[in-house]
Structure formats: structure tokens, C-alpha cells
TrEMBL record:
Taxonomy, superkingdom: Eukaryota
Cross-referenced PANTHER family: AFR070WP
Lineage: Eukaryota, Sar, Stramenopiles, Oomycota, Saprolegniomycetes
SUPFAM superfamilies the record matches: DOPA-like (SSF143410)
The name this protein goes by in its record: Aste57867_21135 protein
Length: 191
């Protein structure tokens, strides 16, 4: 391959990735297509997401701030399902938090709003799919500091239990979006 000719060739030689066309489907090390058709399907899975969860985390000394943010959400986003405040760790969550169920139609506005109204608390935004591990790790967004200690092993057990239960994808999505204590008890019975 002939080297491109640029006015300051030393600068461009220090940037070897510019030797290849700027195409998001290729990589520098391997200029062949990056994504197979199955990976393209995975990368388009976002189109099927209809619900997100937002988890607002707080430490014990931040409980009053959490109550304030909870009240702000209840007032500004009354159309959303807002869970009560959980003061203790539970499931994969390593500290107190509360959850908001956010339909995709409200997600953009809610994400922008919570960016300015979290009062220093960390917020995890994740899609609801049939893969809880990926939802809480690879496919999530953080507003504020991320928490490095989400219990992904718990989520792997949760996903495996859902598989054992023989639920359809639609049943999983419906039940995970609005986790009810009786459903969680059924899932835990399959751990």
C-alpha cells in the first residue's frame, strides 16, 4: 500500500491508523469488516429495548439527599414507576438505592434531567433485556461516579435461573421490568 502524502509526513507517520479509511466497520489491525452478521444483529438489539431502569445509589450518610432526589423524581416524573428507597444492599446492588422504571419514550429527557438533579449521587441507567449481566455492565450508562462492585455473579445466577424457569423472552422482559417480590422469590428458588 502506498503511503499517503501529507504536508507534514512525520506527524502522519505517528498516526498509523490514518493509513486505513475511516470506516467504523474496520479496525486498524484488521482492515476486514469488524462485525459479522450475527454481531450486527447483536448491535441492533438496542432497537428492541422498550424499558430502562435507573438506580440512584447512596451511602448511609447521604440518605437525606437520596430522600430529596426521590421526592424530586416523584414530582417531576410522576408518570414513571418509582420504587421505594432501599437503605441496605440487595441483589446485585452494593449499597442503598432506589429504582425508577423509564420507558424508552422518556429515556432521553429523563437522562438529561437526572444529570442535573442527582445532587452528587451516582446513577446507573441500564436497558431491560434478557441478559441482566450485559445490561448492568456492557450496556449501561453512569451519571456520576460508577460503582465498581455491582455483583455480576448474582446477575449471572439470576439469568441462569430465568433460563431454568423456561420463560419466554417476553415473559422475562415483562417480569424484570417491574420486579415484584413474588417473582423474585420464584427466581431465587431456581438459584
Amino acid at each position: 500500500m502506498k503511503e499517503p502524502s501529507f504536508p507534514n509526513s512525520k506527524t502522519w507517520q505517528a498516526l498509523p491508523f490514518l493509513k486505513y479509511p475511516l470506516n467504523p466497520m474496520t479496525t486498524m489491525a484488521n482492515p476486514s469488516p469488524l462485525r459479522s452478521s450475527s454481531l450486527l444483529d447483536e448491535h441492533n438489539a438496542w432497537r428492541d429495548v422498550t424499558i430502562y431502569h435507573a438506580h440512584v445509589y447512596f451511602e448511609a450518610h447521604q440518605e437525606d439527599v437520596a430522600k430529596h432526589v426521590h421526592a424530586l423524581v416523584a414530582t417531576a416524573w410522576s408518570q414513571l414507576a418509582l420504587a421505594p428507597i432501599f437503605r441496605q444492599p440487595f441483589g446485585p446492588h452494593p449499597m442503598g438505592n432506589f429504582q425508577i422504571v423509564v420507558p424508552v419514550s422518556d429515556f432521553s429527557d429523563f437522562a438529561r434531567w437526572v444529570s442535573f438533579n442527582r445532587h452528587g449521587l451516582s446513577v446507573l441507567l441500564h436497558p431491560i433485556t434478557v441478559n441482566q449481566v450485559a445490561d448492568h455492565s456492557d450496556n449501561c450508562l453512569w451519571v456520576g461516579a460508577s460503582l465498581p462492585n455491582l455483583d455480576l455473579a448474582f446477575l449471572a445466577k439470576f439469568d441462569a435461573a430465568l433460563d431454568k424457569m423456561g420463560l419466554t423472552d417476553e415473559e422475562i422482559l415483562e417480569n424484570v421490568a417491574y420486579l415484584q417480590p413474588d417473582f423474585v422469590a420464584k427466581v431465587r428458588a431456581h438459584f
